[in-house]
């Protein structure tokens, strides 16, 4: 018998008893069973794009699909609130390009050739020396939204337009 706690009420654990041995064997067997079941979940079947859900025996997608068109909606919301006061297509405050529509971002960047506007935007929003917007760097969620959209290849918005952030209605996205 060995003590496993110190103090006034020291309890002992009999490591030689049959019950303790049986409990350890059962715990190890159960752990091995679970490990075997979960290891099978991570193996891809050749040519299969789905994994099996052991509880329901239904196929589950390996990854969650993201509607890439909704990435533009996040960028549009940021541009509408932080950029389009100057980047309105009218040269306001000397802004060399419009950031009103998704096709505006696909045009060649006027100051950072041979990049596109969206590539130039991705650089400037992270530029601490010459930040855009000039008032200072965007917050982390806004930067992530822009980065995700750029990394996806600057896909267009949904056909029906982007949901309005306040009313849940659709607004033009292009």
Number of helices: 5
The amount of beta strand, in percent, is 5-15%
Question: Radius of gyration over alpha carbons?
Answer: 29 Å
Q: Residue-averaged pLDDT, rounded? A: 75
Low-confidence parts, pLDDT < 50 over ≥5 residues?
A: 28-35, 40-53
Biggest beta sheet summary: 2 strands, antiparallel
Termini, distance in Å? 77 Å
- Count of beta strands: 6
Which class of secondary structure composition applies to the elements? alpha+beta
Strand order within the widest sheet? 1-2
Describe the global form: globular
Classify the oligomer. Answer: single chain
Sequence-ordered SSE layout with sheet pairings:
Layout: E1 2-3, E2 12-13, H1 18-41, E3 50-53, E4 58-61, H2 69-82, H3 102-106, H4 117-124, H5 140-151, E5 162-163, E6 170-171
Antiparallel strand pairs: 1-2, 3-4, 5-6
Helix pairs in contact: 2-5
């Amino acid at each position: 018998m060995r003590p496993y706690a110190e103090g006034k009420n020291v309890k002992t654990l009999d490591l030689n008893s049959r019950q303790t041995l049986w409990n350890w064997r059962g715990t190890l067997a159960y752990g091995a069973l679970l490990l075997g079941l979960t290891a099978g979940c991570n193996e891809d079947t050749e040519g299969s794009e789905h994994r099996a859900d052991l509880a329901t025996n239904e196929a589950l997608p390996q990854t969650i699909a993201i509607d890439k068109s909704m990435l533009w909606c996040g960028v549009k919301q940021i541009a509408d609130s932080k950029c389009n006061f100057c980047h309105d297509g009218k040269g306001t405050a000397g802004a060399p390009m419009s950031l009103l529509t998704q096709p505006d971002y696909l045009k060649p960047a006027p100051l950072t050739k041979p990049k596109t506007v969206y590539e130039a935007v991705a650089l400037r929003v992270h530029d601490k020396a010459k930040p855009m917007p000039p008032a200072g760097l965007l917050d982390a969620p806004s930067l992530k939204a822009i980065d995700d959209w750029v990394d996806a290849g600057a896909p267009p918005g949904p056909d029906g337009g982007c949901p309005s952030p306040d009313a849940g209605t659709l607004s033009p996205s292009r």
